[in-house]
Amino acid sequence: MGAVDPERGDRPTILLLEDDPAVATSLVRFLERMGMRVLLAPTPSAALETAGTHPEHIDLLLSDVVLPEMSGPEAADRIMQIRPGIRVLFMSAYLEADLLDRGEAVFRGDFINKPFELSDLLERIQAILADANR
């Protein structure tokens, strides 16, 4: 799958919840190169504030699972209350089963393991957004 085409008006907005600055910077650069708008939140509280104040539509929350303040799934549940219909893609270096064993909240969204190929991430995001538009 290729990049989105901003000329066609299909430039999605991604709320990125990632506390590791190096990972966040890499993801922002990549997603913006692929034609997406990225709203970066380094903490769950920043993501909640952005979800509540951003004046335009937010298509997808891309969130780490293990975060300070609260888990990614807890933050996502709160964001989904503010932004009904937002899609969610979780990412973690932990396996999904290990996260569940650790007592992390049940995921209401898709999941991708870190490390991942950026092309795989793009493919997952585009599939989720395509499914949302059906």
Folded structure, characterized:
With 134 residues, the protein is of the alpha/beta class. It has five helices and five strands; from the N terminus they run βαβαβαβαβα. The protein has a five-stranded parallel beta sheet, with helices on both faces. It is globular. The two termini are 18 Å apart.
Concise account of the structure shown:
This protein is an alpha/beta fold and 134 residues long.
Order of helices and strands: EHEHEHEHEH
Number of helical elements:
5
Any idea what the radius of gyration is? 14 Å
Helix-strand makeup class: alpha/beta
- Number of E strands: 5
Distance between the termini: 18 Å
Shape: globular
The proportion of residues in beta strands is 15-25%
Low-confidence stretches: 1-8
Q: Give the integer mean of the pLDDT values.
A: 87
Give keywords.
134 residues; five-stranded parallel sheet
Question: Helices, strands, pairings?
Answer:
Layout: E1 13-17, H1 21-33, E2 37-41, H2 44-53, E3 60-64, H3 72-82, E4 87-92, H4 96-101, E5 110-113, H5 118-132
Parallel strand pairs: 1-2, 1-3, 3-4, 4-5
Helix pairs in contact: 2-3
